[in-house]
Each structure stands twice: as structure tokens, then as C-alpha cells.
């Protein structure tokens, strides 16, 4: 066995894996610190609320602040108090099928004009979603074509390698960049299905429901 090759492989692993693990540890540590700081803030707010029994105005203000802090701890994003109750009601209605992480990812695509919280895509978002789906489909076809040519005809040129590599990179990047949009589209489909199920569950018109 070539000792030089083993040394090069080991060196490459150390060079690549070491910084990746260090970065992961740094990000995880920062996330843990932020979460711990948020919990401390919640405790301090609770103590402040308990100490302000005589000042209803200031106590109401502290309660509003705590609500937004709660939304950050639960949903991962600071949801304004005007929308917090809607978010909680949405989560409870779709419990088991929707996570708080889904709501956080899709939050920017919510339908702000709907009284019950809704993620049904607006026209502009729907157009972007369709284009993203077309691009993802094109990447899958390009990857499949390159892989088929390489395997069936045993041809592995630089062009085929480049096509496959670019297709994979494009597929991953578009999914990562638009994960909130794809999540919102999933929630919109779920809402539509839930609405149909609710309509089917209603008693026929004119029935007393007994």
C-alpha cells in the first residue's frame, strides 16, 4: 500500500473535516447561547410582571413583550402580537401535520389579508414557485440524461461530468434558497385539503344535525 497516498488522504480529511466541525460547533454554541439568553429574558419578564401589580399599564406592556419573546422561543421567529394568536390557532388546527419550523420558514409568504392565518400563495409568489419547479425538473432531467449516457455508453467526458455537477448544484441551491416558498406551497395545499374535509364534514343544508 502506498504510504504517501495514505498520508495525503489523511491530511485532506484533517484539512476538510476539522474546519467543518469547528464551524458546526461554533454555530451550535452561539445558538445555545441565544436560546439560553432568551430563557433568561423570559424569566426576568415574568418577575417584572409579578412585581408590577399596581401599574396595570406597564404590566400590560410587559405582557405584550413576553408574548413576542414566547413566539421566538416556540416558533423560531419573533411574531408580532397581532399575529401570534392566529399562528397558535393555525398550529393547533393542523397539529401533527405542521410543525412550528414549517410556520417559521413559510412566515414571509403568509396571506396578510386573511383573518385566519393562511399561507395560500399570492400571484407573484405562485409565479416564482412555478418557475422554481420548472428549474428543478430541468435539473433532474439534465442529471438523469448525463448519468444515462455515462452508464449506458460508458462515456465519461468533462462535458458530462460538468453537466451532472451543475445539475446537482442547481437542484440543491434552488431548493435551499426557496425552502420557505416550497414550505408555504405545501401548507397551502394542506389548507385546501383541510377546507374540503371540513365542508364534507358539515351536515347537509337544511339538516338539523341530529
Short précis:
The protein has 210 residues and is mainly alpha-helical. It has helices at residues 3-50, 56-75, 81-93, 100-106, 123-152, 158-177, 179-201.
Beta-strand proportion = under 5%
SSE pattern: HHHHHHH
The SS-based structural class is mainly alpha
What average pLDDT do the residues reach? 81
Question: How many helical elements?
Answer: 7
Estimate percent helicity: over 70%
Poorly predicted spans: none
Number of domains: 2
Number of strands: 0
Q: What is the strand and helix layout of this fold?
A:
Layout: H1 3-50, H2 56-75, H3 81-93, H4 100-106, H5 123-152, H6 158-177, H7 179-201
Descriptive overview:
With 210 residues, the chain is mainly alpha-helical. It is flat, with a radius of gyration of 26 Å. The protein has helices at residues 3-50, 56-75, 81-93, 100-106, 123-152, 158-177, 179-201. Helices cover 77% and strands 0% of the residues.
Features:
210 residues, mainly alpha, 2 domains, 7 helices
